[in-house]
Amino acid sequence: MNNIKACIFDLDGVIVDTAVYHYKAWKRLAAGLGFDFSEHDNERLKGVSRMRSLEIVLECGGVTKTDAEKEQLAAQKNTWYTEMINQMTPAEILPGAQEFVQSCRDAGIKTALGSASKNSMTILNKLNIVNLFDAIIDGNKVSKAKPDPEVFLKGAEELSIEPQFCVVFEDAIAGVEAAKAGGMKAVGIGDANILHEADMVVSGLDKVTLEQLEILP
Ligand code: G6P
Ligand code: MG
Known about the structure:
Radius of gyration: 17 Å
Number of helices: 9
CATH class of the largest domain: Alpha Beta
Order of helices and strands: EHHHHHEHEHEHEEH
Distance between the termini: 14 Å
Pfam family, one: Hydrolase
Strand content: 5-15%
CATH architecture of the largest domain: 3-Layer(aba) Sandwich
Structural class: alpha/beta
Low-confidence stretches: none
Number of domains: 2
Organism: Mucilaginibacter sabulilitoris
Protein name: Beta-phosphoglucomutase
Cofactor: Mg(2+)
Number of strands: 6
CATH topology of the largest domain: Rossmann fold
Shape: globular
Mean pLDDT: 95
Bound molecules: 6-O-phosphono-alpha-D-glucopyranose, magnesium ion
Family: Belongs to the HAD-like hydrolase superfamily. CbbY/CbbZ/Gph/YieH family.
C-alpha cells in the first residue's frame, strides 16, 4: 500500500453510534423548552459542533435565547449526554470497526481519530479502544468545525503524513467535505446519495477492505 499511509476516522457514526444518545439528550432539552425535536431534524446535527447543534435545535422550535442561556442549555444537554455515554460498553462498537482499524495497523498504515466531539476520550475509554489510534484529534484540539479541514490536517500533521496519502472515513456530509478540502481521500459511511462527494461509499467499516482503498482515485 504505497499510496495510503494513514487512515483517519470520525468517531460518531463511524466507530460507534452515539447519534442516538445525542438525540435523546436534545429531545429532552427541547421538551423542557416546550417543543418536540424530531428524528428527521436530528440528521442535521451529524458532525456539527455542540453549540451549532443547539442553535439548530432552537431554530427548529422557533425559540430564541441569549448567549448566556445558550451556554447553560448546551451544558445541560451535555450533562444528560455524558450520563448516557458513561454507561457504554465495547459491545456498542459498530460492526467491523475495531477489526478494520486493527487491519490498517497490521498493514503498517497509521491511524488517527478526527472527531468534533469534546467527549471523544470518554467514549474511547468506555469502548476500550484508545490504543487503536496513533493520534487522537477531538473537539478540544480544534477551533474550526467541519467542513473546515482543520481536524483532519492536525491528524495528518501529528502522524507526519502528507494529506494526499490520507484516507478519511466519515458519515457526515460536512466531514466528507472537510476531508476533500484538506486534499485527502474520503470514504463515506452511509448513503451514497447523501455522501456523493466521497470517493467511495460503504454502509459500514465491515464492508470495506484495504485492497479497495488502493484503487481510490
Ligand atoms: C460529533 C457528532 C455531533 C456532535 C459533535 C460534538 O460531530 O456527530 O452530533 O454534536 O460531535 O459533540 P460533543 O460530544 O462535543 O457535544
Ligand atoms: Mg460522524
